[in-house]
Design goal:
homodimer; alpha+beta; eight-stranded mixed beta sheet; four-stranded mixed beta sheet
Chain lengths: 288, 288
């Protein structure tokens, strides 16, 4: 394996098996065949044909769409769909800054293939001239990637909160980073990917942040989502990303970007240009 | 204008007017119609048909190809082709780390549409809690972008020298940065673009570096390529990039990446995701 393989893993569109999920005339996701068939059972909410799953025109506003889709999703949950239920609402829109067309339970977002957003934080410690970063091990109870390695803080972006406030909230919950420190986090770019496997479409943008932490700061988890933290030199991080499958697959993208920006992966790497290029996949909504 | 417009300016493929430039069976550039017609006059070097301009198979090695193409280019130069002659050889290859198939005069590289590489340095000064960067004004005698604004150091990547050594050489020539200081420059990523206008194909990868300079360091140009230097706060840089045409168009890409990495352009910018995505255009060699 190599760093480039980590990126390629996240770039697997397989759109021929999926129908477009269309809201107010705009494609905003991908629905797998089994779910599309089941959604025919909700003709007051979804119009299903061979190419697309549309929310019916009668549901013309954010509130009515969110309520009707939410009710249908609750029914389906009882039938065993959407195992990773989160009780957290994600916005569905044509772009990040566009007004949301509806909101949808996070645990159903992957099944509908809507684009999700998250904030990812690198916790950096410079000690004795050596740059290190805090690595978290995800709790075994996490619905996605239990036990996998992760950044010190990361979280999905719910509807109705700013990225900055979400980052500060996640910093407190996941690592006990006080708000005064979390506010010093600097946005450093974004990476994206689009991946389809089985009935799941992962279409995600990761907003990356760097935060320099005092050497005497030790993260403490408070929400039960992290099993523990370790401080790693960046060379160890690079080796683990290249040689093992230990990191959550999308977190790996954010961390490869981190290694590139900090010069740990440099232009002597034969894959350097492909890595820089691959951290942005083609936008999924134009993929069909 | 906006930052995104600067990126869009660099993403204009117009491949239908051009023929592929093919060496040893691999596409490595784009030749405009007029030049392709003229190259029919060198049947011992080029084979021209409706789709491609190939170097003939009899020229089977780096040395023989470079000599034969070089002789033809010298003849064409006497006829007025290739006005921006540089007496500097660029490698032509299928990728940056692949063995070069031939070398070609830099002043002819754009006319043959081969992918060029360069090193771009951000000279950073932190003073009184304010991050600033050195901006250069290009000399009026430069063949490309005379009088335009630029980074403190930047240069094309000639054949036969490492990126690191080229950067150190350019640091000395362009800004009198001593080698001991230049060696501290950190690679921070790469951006790329592909743009065709008139008979020119610009296919370029910019390797970006950050260097923190002491507050008392003042750059001094020694090779006549820079008219002067100014130290700018990053907010001024952002405004100038968004609102004016003062920066060389490809340098603007490297600087937008710089502003993103340093958090001056953040996710509150409505174009943030498109900017991050646009800093890598589709690879030109796959564009046809």
């Amino acid at each position: 394996m190599s760093l480039l393989d980590r990126i390629r893993y996240c770039r697997r569109p397989d759109v021929t098996r999926f129908r477009r999920f269309v809201v107010a005339g705009s494609p905003v996701g991908w629905v797998p065949p089994g779910l599309a068939d089941r959604l025919r059972g909700f003709p007051g909410v979804f119009a299903v044909d061979g190419d697309s799953v549309r929310i019916v025109d009668a549901l013309a506003a954010f509130e009515s769409r969110s309520r009707a889709v939410g009710d249908a999703i609750l029914r389906l949950r009882e039938e065993g769909w959407f195992p990773g239920w989160r009780d957290e609402a994600f916005a569905v829109a044509t772009s990040f800054h566009a007004p949301p067309l509806l909101q949808i339970e996070r645990g159903a977002a992957r099944a509908f293939g809507v684009r999700c957003y998250c904030v990812q934080l690198n916790g950096i410690v410079d000690r004795d001239g050596l740059r290190q970063t805090w690595i978290a091990r995800r709790a075994l109870t996490k619905p996605v990637g239990p036990g996998k390695l992760d950044q010190i803080v990361g979280g999905g972006q719910p509807v109705g909160i700013s990225l900055r406030d979400n980052l500060i909230k996640e910093c407190a919950e996941e690592a006990s980073i006080p708000a005064s420190l979390a506010r010093q986090a600097r946005p450093v770019g974004a990476v994206a990917y689009f991946r389809q496997e089985g009935d799941i479409s992962d279409d995600e943008v990761l907003f990356n942040y760097d935060l320099h932490l005092p050497p005497d700061f030790t993260p403490v988890n408070t929400d039960g989502e992290v099993a523990g933290f370790e401080l790693w030199p960046l060379a160890r991080l690079k080796a683990a990303l290249a040689d093992t499958d230990d990191f959550l697959f999308d977190v790996a993208l954010s961390l490869i970007d981190f290694l590139v920006r900090h010069g740990i992966v440099g232009p002597d790497d034969p894959d350097y240009i492909e890595i820089a290029e691959g951290l942005w996949s083609a936008p999924s909504q134009g993929a069909a």
